[in-house]
Amino acid sequence: MNRTTTAIAALLASFLVTTARAENAFACTAESRQRNEATVRIVFEEILGKGRIAENEHIYHPDFAARGMTRDATRAEDRAASEGWRSMAPDLQMKVLHLVSDCDYVAAHFEGSGTNTGEGNGFPATGRTIRVRGMTIFRLVDGRIIEEWSSFDQYALLKQLGLVP
């Protein structure tokens, strides 16, 4: 490659990077981030916190997947898990402690608390109270949740339920 070709290639690469950044900046506005954060709050405050699962199905993309350590879950499986948490602790309260967003990604630090008076998600009713914190990262497309990655303190949950020493 001669100097002219190298300079043209460098200029073209610089243009493409600048154009890609400008397109992302245009698509990622403060308004779109706020809308995505509001959608994520619905998961915790309405779906998990109040059990309004069917009423909020519209926030999920048809190609939704809950990404797991060993396998991914479909929307139907994720919905069943939400119903299971509500069955396990009918008084479940959810708090969003922190939200951080970057364009189509929103990270939520949350806390769930309630009384385990029912069976759900494989847990027996113990009558014990629980309080667990966790984090979920969501990816949204066109304002709808298409992917999520969740983690919470499962050992603390089992210990509080009296299921492990």
Summed up, what is this model?
This protein is an alpha+beta fold. It has four helices and five strands; from the N terminus they run ααβαββββα.
Descriptive account of the structure:
- Helix 2 crosses helix 3.
- The protein contains four helices and five strands.
- It is α+β, with helices and mostly antiparallel strands and 165 residues long.
- The protein has one domain: Nuclear Transport Factor 2, Chain: A, CATH 3.10.450.
- The longest helix is centred in the first third of the chain and has 25 residues, at 3-27.
- It has a five-stranded mixed sheet with strand order 1-5-4-3-2.
- Helices cover 41% and strands 31% of the residues.
- The radius of gyration is 21 Å and the shape is elongated.
- A hairpin with a 2-residue loop joins strand 4 (129-141) and strand 5 (144-152).
Q: What low-confidence regions span 5 or more consecutive residues with pLDDT below 50?
A: 5-13, 15-23
Rounded to the nearest angstrom, the distance between the terminal CA atoms is 68 Å
Percent range for β-strand residues:
25-35%
Largest sheet: 5 strands, mixed
Mean pLDDT: 89
What string, H for helix and E for strand, traces the elements in order? HHEHEEEEH
Topology at a glance:
Blueprint: H1 3-27, H2 30-50, E1 60-67, H3 75-88, E2 93-102, E3 105-115, E4 129-141, E5 144-152, H4 154-160
Parallel strand pairs: 1-5
Antiparallel strand pairs: 2-3, 3-4, 4-5
Key structural traits:
five-stranded mixed β-sheet; 165 residues; Nuclear Transport Factor 2, Chain: A; alpha+beta; elongated
